[in-house]
Amino acid sequence: xxxxxxxxxxxxxxxxxxxxxxxxxxxxxxxxxxxxxxxxxxxxxxxxxxxxxxxxxxxxxxxxxxxxxxxxxxxxxxxxxxxxxxxxxxxxxxxxxxxxxxxxxxxxxxxxxxxxxxxxxxxxxxxxxxxxxxxxxxxxxxxxxxxxxxxx
Length: 152
Fold this sequence. Notes:
two-stranded antiparallel sheet, Non-ribosomal Peptide Synthetase Peptidyl Carrier Protein, Chain A, mainly alpha, 2 domains, CATH 1.10.1650.10
């Protein structure tokens, strides 16, 4: 039983696509006789013709990905474009590096493992960007005998 005309009329009345119009399987003969918009409107009011809800694109995957990114995940090398300085600016990495080095140097001075002259020398070298990291400072101190031995 073809009901294409009735579907099209219902779609016009419901302001949607014919794909979203559902015809009730019972009382199909009554629907076949409905040939005017008024007839179809009556069937809509009776609940024999209904408008199906819209199917949107699910945001579930996008929300999950956003949650993961908030946790700091999914930011590996495969996702990166541009230089490392585009992701972490030079200034930010410098600040992190110099704060670590200065904290280490102040700890050495506090524990009296380096004298004032040695501290000043190391501090200036750190400020000039001589040391790559904290470990580099330790190696430099051992090579140049800057570590003071505490007497018991």
